[in-house]
Structures are given as structure tokens and as C-alpha cells.
Predict the structure.
Amino acid sequence: MRTTICGLWLLLFCLACSPSYDHKGRTPLVEVDGHFLYEEDLWAVQPVGLSPDDSLLFADDYVRNWVEEVLLYDKAEENIPDNEEVERLVANYRKSLILHLYQQALIRQKLAAEVTEEEVEAYYRDNLNLFKVDRPLIKGLFIKVPLKAPRLADVRRWYRSDSHDAVEHLEKYSLRNAVKYEYFYDKWVPAADVLGLLPGGGMEAEPALRQKRPVELADTAFHYFLNVTDYRAVGEEEPYEVARVHARDLLLNIRQVEFMRGVRDDLYRQAVENNRITYYKDHIEE
């Protein structure tokens, strides 16, 4: 039978009466062969916002799972024949974890977390082969209006131009008449995101995008106007605005690797100078 909450509190009372263990101010909930689950541990993992009934169910399930895990672990310890292999794996993991934490601490203390914009741009220019478009990108403007919208002739004239006056006219017009208006002359966006706004997923508009020709479509309810001023196909050079974050991350990673290489070289040199390293006859130095 599953442990009930009432039973848990009864057990809590009994354990609190026992002087055998120093719980360091924590409140025990359940014990299995000297292993304790504390009330504070339960509250730390309990989701916020549960109803009283759900809270009781969660506590009941958590305690039961904890007990089962302790019992299973004890049984596993009794039946794993090669404890030396376990200790070796634990030692290797501990070594890797300590090395990782120490390297991260060194990098935070000694290596600047930021690089200048000029450095990122220089790295991007010197490594253009690393930055290729993996999905078509475009710059432009999109507007969607009802079939009976006023001044459609003006809209057809305005949307084809990226001049300040044309854009200003469209922005004012869109406030009253547009169902959707997207301005992206100043940034790259995935072509698929814009094509998805057109009837039929924009399949018939794709050739026009590649040729940077204006697109006008209509269905039974709306007119769709799209003007593309720039286009990058898959495999072409990725624009710096899009590649910037990736370029910065790559540059930071290179600097971190170089920094840690220097730290390791310094430690090795100092160890050699202090005669801390002994090579035996079967070692061949380069």
C-alpha cells in the first residue's frame, strides 16, 4: 500500500523523537536503513501552484519514488561485481568535472568575455567560407489589404519603391486599411516566413523573389503586395548582420582554446623547471 501523508507525518514525529542521528536542523520525513529524506528536500522540488490535493499526491509519489530508488541502489551495490571499475569511472568523471570547472573559472577571471565589433567583423571577413546561407533570405516590404480597400492604385505605386516617401505613405495607409504590414528593408528575414503570408504558401512568387521583382497576388478576399530589394540563396555568403552572433561565438571559442593552451604550456614548463616530471626509459620525447 502506498505511503499516505498521514503516515508520513506520523513517521516524522517518531523520527523527531529519536536522538540517534544529527539531522543538522533539518526535518526528516522518511528513513531507509540510515538514509534520510528531509522535508526541506521535498519542498525544494515541489512545483509551485499545485492545489492542496495535487500537492499531497505529488508528495506521496515523490516519497515513494525516493524510497524505491534507495532500495534499488542498495540492491545494485550488492550485485555489481566490479566495484573497482565503478570507482575508476567515478574518478575519471570527477577529474573531468574539476578540470572543466577550473578552466571555466580561469576563463572568466583572465579572459575578456567580450570582443570588439571590429574584431568580429575582421574574423567574419577573413573566414567567409564558414558563413554560408542555409535557407533563402530576403529584405523587403509586405502589405496585405482587403479586395475593396481604397486607393489600390497608390498602393501599387508605393509598394514598389523603398524610398522614404513611399514607405511613409504605406505606413500611414496601413494603419487604417492593411490587414498585415511588414517592413524589413533594413533586416534579413527567412524567405519562407514571408512566402507563408501569401496564398498557396507563395509557391508562384518564389521565382520573382530570386529575381528581386515586385509580387502582387490576390485571392477571394485580399490583395497581397511584396517588394524584395535583396535576396540571398542557399550556399551564398551569409550577410554579416545574420552571421554576427555565430562569428562572435567562434572567435570567443578560439580565444578560449588559445588561452587554455597557454595555461597548459606554462604549467608544463614550470613543472619541467622544478623537476616535477620523471620520464622513464620507455618514453620517447619528441
Summary: The chain is about 55% helix and 15% strand. Residues 5-79 form one domain. The first helix runs from residue 5 to 17.
